[in-house]
Fold these 2 entries.
Entry 1:
Amino acid sequence: MGDDIEALPAGIVTESSVEAICLVRVAAAVAALDETAVRKEMKAAHNRVDPAFVEEVILQSYLFAGFPRALNAARIWRTFSREAAAATLEQADDIAGWRENGKRTCETVYGSAYEKLRTNIRELHPLLDDWMITEGYGKVLSRPQLSLKLRELCIVAACAASGQQRQLHSHLRGALNAGVSPDAVERTLDALSDLISADRLVSYKLLFARVKRGGSDVH
């Protein structure tokens, strides 16, 4: 499956390097590839990765790929993992809690660019700003079932595969802000070498080199 990715603590679980590679490839396939490719990556992940990890990647994929792809991915995954998913929406009506968690998580990801991000998104539409924080960073990306480090690597993979370069720029930096090592980010990109074109992979590596030098970009 390629080179090792650093072990990333997830609070209640710890991912191994093989699990991390499997998950970023699943994230990329769900975001941008056809169902045959999604099935191939899920088959590779099955019996190598805790099913709960794969399901977290699928759940968060609706933020980056939309509900149709998330639903199709969940349907494919159920052909491999037939156990009913655990109900993990504790405090499902705690909107205020989601909002506060979302602020903290988003600020971790964006660091010193957090306030600028919030201003930019509010100017696009105030509801987009509220939903980004409450729904995206709060309800979904603050869930403890998967570490923020590994979530960010999966977001990098999804944005890379789907060609969302502006968001990729933000989340390459976000992964570093969340504590992922530069080597782990680079190995995540390398893990996609057969899923995206060589030209795009080169451009993404150049983009990451710019991020490491301090180049900034906020949505």
Entry 2:
Amino acid sequence: MERRILIGSKIRAARKQLGMSQTALAKALGRSHVAISKIERGITKLEVTDLDHLARALGRTLDYFTGDITSDIPSPPITPEQLRNLCSAIPVAIPIISQEDSVQRPQQILGYSYWHQDEVGGREIIGLRIKDAPIPPLIENGDTVFFTVGTAAKSGNVVVVRVDNQLLVKRFCKRGETITLEDDHAGVMKPDNYTIEGIVIQVCKKLSSLANDDH
């Protein structure tokens, strides 16, 4: 039902409850009975001030008529601060890829993790699902590591590195001019050709199965 028709029906009902004719209401408002008829049929669009006058004449509050017409009343324009708050509430979808995928051209998205925009902070973040546990118990099979793409590594950082077209998670170590990639599984690597894709900033542990729980 259109808003105007709903308002008009409420006006008609309130008038009849008072035993008032359209002509009597028209005289109270300084209008013609034709104008009142158009209002009750939803033909005439009322301003809030006009509706307030009608409410007073019919012994009703303005809320009686405006309870279902809030969308007809223009809302104040949204402020830049309100717009920023609305945008900041929208979560960022972080893609999760496998160790066989490419950071530049992911072959398959395994899923998404949704982060608050304040956590992302404008950075490019990617999730990597681990199949070959490189640094147990910190990172194990089935865990997902999240790393910032293109961040410069410092000695001691856990990084996602590309070696021989495979994404690995290693501890970046620099001693003087010597750079090594280390973990507790494969030991120390001194690869000739590698690319650091980013620094690990968070580890999401795989949920343990409860299937064999004796509770």
